[in-house]
## 1
Amino acid sequence: MKVLIVEDEYDIAANIGDYLESHGHVPDYAYDGVGGLHLALTEHYDAIVLDVMLPRMNGLRFCENLRQESVHTPVLMLTARDTLEDKLAGFSVGTDDYLVKPFALQELYVRLEALIRRHQPEHMASKVLKIADLELNPATHQASRAGQALKLNPVGLKLLKLLMEASPNTVSRSILEQSLWQEAPPESDALRSHLYALRQVVDKPFEHALIHTVHGIGYRLVAPESHAA
Ligand code: CA
């Protein structure tokens, strides 16, 4: 399992990382909120260990931004104080669990394992989606076309999954927006720009486009031969 550790205290980050590594996990590190958020949005992690007090962006803002981008990676938050307000603040921005510093590494490990397990049924139920030469494995978050790996961010992966699951049907803009951002799309053109980015990766390098705009309605993803009709 891949775990992102966002913690500005190097010793604590290294201790957590070493402990996780010795239990077979693969740790990755960020030492401030902005760098951590960038990693969390561009790479796939099974869980995130997040300190609250961080330079450049605190843990609460980090979590809020992460959830706004529709990334649901489980987050274990590290707080310095055990107050109800801190706890509530953490949960209201989408934290899954929290630990008060100082903590035992073993406890952190047990809680992380529980978080990862809780998020798994969704993954295990999914199977590989395949349309023409395009493949997506929702469990491993790997996409490929014509045997070439496609590099997609979490929003791109989610969009691709929605379109592939619905294929050959059209998915309306509002369904896509709701699935990605629930009631609150970040801005009116966000979907359009995410679709543009997705097409740059999935369609542009290849001869036939699979993603099609259905004007006034939404988008559909179909094999070239079924689109020709
Ligand atoms: Ca800190």
## 2
Amino acid sequence: MAKPPKPTRASPARLIFGDLWEYDPAPETADPKLRARYELFINGEFVRPKAGKYFDSINPATERKLAEIALAGPADVDAAYRAATGAFKAWAALPGRERGKYLFRIARLLQDRAREFAVAETLDGGKPIKESRDFDVPMAAAHFFYHAGWADKLEYVAPGRTVAPVGVVGQVIPWNFPLLMLAWKLAPALAMGNCVVLKPAETTSITALKLAEILQDAGLPPGVVNFVTGAAATGAAVMGHPAAAKVAFTGSTEVGKAIMRQLAGTDRRMTMELGGKAANIVFDDAPLDQAVEGIVNGIFFNQGHVCCAGSRLLVQEGVAERVIAKLKARIRMLRVGDPLDKNTDLGAINSKAQLSTIRRLVAAGVREGATIYQPPVKLPEKGYYYPPTLFTHVTQSHRVAREEIFGPVLAILTFRTVDEAIEKANNTAYGLSAGVWTDKGSRILRMSTELKAGVVWANTFNRFDPASPFGGYKESGFGREGGRQGLLDYTSHA
Ligand code: NDP
């Protein structure tokens, strides 16, 4: 007699995690060792600003004041450039291997204090602790290590040519990766033998000033690195100072253009790392679950405050419905809230001003006829928060498809053919990054050749390495950071 079939357990249609239990809070508790007041860092010392003015740095997760930061005026910027100019000759004359030792020391000291820096970065900027702990701080240390390794091999930066530092460099950085952008700017400049005057963003100065403590502990000669804190006027003074042989800027395209206008007609060398509106392109043969993880990482990493964020999803028509359904299910699981909680996926928006920019552009998306989706999330009552947001039925003329929102907002468009995907992806003023998801190697090669973007990720997104040059095309800027190419931008070679 035939055996009766074994009863099988019906598999659930989908696994629901978020509804089954409540997470206990898991706050990171390391002491960020903040000072109540931070001074300027000029000529190796913390000094009061000449006009005696300070501004508050706010924790965007709580809207509470974290510390007072010195406001640098033109006389302070002048003093910083004097210190840098005074230090340049001796610093440039050091053998590369000696400069490398300082960079190694800075990297190791940063590693020693990694947890403290991660907490400080999260408090000041609002990013989730798991990102500052696992990405920002280790990557910043990696940049110092990498460039320390270059310092005694500079003859290979431009083989067959004589390389030399450019002199004193003025640098201005944004608030989305405060410590990491600082490392991207400082490490190659120092390895090559340049001296630096740097301005961090107004809302996120603290980790730069904590790094100044490390520079002191590393015994870096006074004047080699100087930090002047403040807002746009301080930035303009740093960029426009006549003692700067080169300026390096990361921030919005609008301010980048203003700086280029300000410096037009001078012989100042420049590198600009500006905005982006990257296309993350999913073909119908892509591993869809993997692609969904890449899409989520591409747009929700650091609340979408990422110049190379995959803020436009281009998905092939045949799989669009499935991808969008998977994406909606996935973002329902994202945890938005206290950035210091180790379970948090999306922390606080960096500032009140940025939150209103995001709200304004999302309202424009709704007004222009795109369909909005936001999962049900309970946002904290205090602090600047925004839920993960998707827009479908987006056309290329919608503002959400054209403008850099710099927030957790994804615009979804569809395409049918490879040519259409390329056409739509390149139909933007920007050209910083792009992503391609497909099973076909030949298609990856074609896409990476035809996409006008400084970096093209294949079957992954938001991967960084100090050895890999990063930078833009078109209105995303010019010049490269990282790798040999990044060093060339801090070199004069004959
Ligand atoms: P900004 O470009 O204004 O800020 C970047 C840095 O430049 C900050 O340190 C800022 O100082 C400084 N700065 C501002 N004005 C001048 C100036 N005239 N001369 C020299 N330096 C200046 O970006 P925002 O913070 O205003 O953000 C606005 C938008 O820019 C965002 O919504 C986003 O779309 C985009 N953005 C893009 C970034 C990117 O990496 N692609 C990074 C940051 C912003 P301070 O902040 O202290 O005033």
